[in-house]
Specification:
With 128 residues, the protein is an all-alpha fold. It has one domain (24-127). The chain has two helices and no strands. The longest helix has 78 residues, at 2-79. The protein starts with a helix and ends with a helix.
Length: 128
């Protein structure tokens, strides 16, 4: 009788240990994935910020070149005798520079949110 009770207890204990081990392993896997994603996002965020910063710098540079190009056109128009363009010659560089500065400031302010937005999109893609 004691022998049967001992065997039944050992079998129940073995089954319990196996099911707890499988459950623990499945939970551990989820935790490992979360840790991996945390480090991936932590290390990926500066890269996304750098990418967004480069985009803002490129857009600002493009806008600045446009302002300078328009100013050169106005100078050539005024020097060839078109005096009606004098007003644009004076005002366009000021307004163009101000617009460029505003766009650059807006871009710089939006960099963290844009980088975070890409981060959440990446997480949604990985979850699927």
């Amino acid at each position: 009788m004691k022998k049967r009770l001992f065997i039944i207890t050992a079998v129940i204990l073995a089954i319990s240990v196996m099911s707890v081990s499988a459950s623990y392993a499945a939970g551990k896997e989820g935790f490992g994935t979360r840790v991996k994603n945390f480090w991936k996002n932590l290390l990926g965020y500066p890269a996304r910020v750098t990418e967004e910063s480069a985009s803002v710098v490129a857009d600002t540079l493009k806008k600045g070149v446009s302002v300078v190009t328009n100013e050169v056109k106005r100078v050539s128009e005024v020097t060839t005798g078109d005096m009606s363009k004098i007003k644009e010659l004076i005002t366009e560089p000021i307004t163009g520079t101000a617009e460029t500065a505003v766009k650059a400031a807006e871009g710089v302010i939006s960099i963290p949110s844009e980088a975070a937005k890409e981060k959440t999109e990446a997480q949604a893609t990985e979850a699927k």
